[in-house]
């Protein structure tokens, strides 16, 4: 059982290795690259919490201030940036606030 299956809530990513474990151990992972000062990131928060609770996807949160080098290595230039991983591979990236239905569609397509 993965971490979110037990909690149904977004997981705060502690480091690059933590995210790699989540991607390796789960079929679909939605990674939210965010910053605490980012207004659109705050707007997206409830949507991501609902997706974590309502879908089989793992929702992982990466604070770009806390993990600056990792965010840069992932090519993150603006927040929020959402990356979807399916079966250990990066599958899709979207930038900016997204509609919940659109995000759920991507999760279901990948799942």
Automatic annotation (TrEMBL):
Domain Thioredoxin, first and last residues per copy: 1-111
Active site (record annotation): 38 (nucleophile), 41 (nucleophile)
Entry GO terms, CC: cytoplasm
Disulfide links within the chain: 38-41
Site features described as Contributes to redox potential value, chain residue numbers: 39-40
PROSITE patterns found in the cross-reference section: THIOREDOXIN_1, THIOREDOXIN_2
Site features described as Deprotonates C-terminal active site Cys, chain residue numbers: 32
Record InterPro entries: Thioredoxin (IPR005746), Thioredoxin-like_sf (IPR036249), Thioredoxin_CS (IPR017937), Thioredoxin_domain (IPR013766)
GO MF annotations, alphabetized: protein-disulfide reductase activity
Alphabetical UniProt keywords: Disulfide bond, Electron transport, Redox-active center, Transport
CDD domains per the UniProt record, alphabetical: TRX_family
PANTHER family associated with the record: GEO12009P1
NCBIfam families: thioredoxin
Protein name as annotated: Thioredoxin
């Amino acid at each position: 059982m993965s971490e979110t299956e037990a909690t149904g809530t977004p997981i705060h990513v502690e480091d690059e290795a933590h995210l790699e474990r989540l991607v390796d151990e789960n079929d679909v992972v939605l990674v939210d690259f965010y910053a605490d000062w980012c207004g659109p990131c705050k707007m997206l928060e409830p949507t991501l919490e609902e997706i974590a609770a309502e879908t089989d996807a793992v929702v992982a949160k990466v604070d770009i201030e806390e993990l600056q080098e990792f965010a840069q290595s992932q090519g993150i230039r603006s927040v929020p940036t959402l990356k979807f991983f399916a079966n250990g591979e990066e599958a899709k990236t979207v930038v900016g606030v997204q509609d919940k239905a659109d995000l759920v569609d991507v999760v279901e397509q990948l799942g």
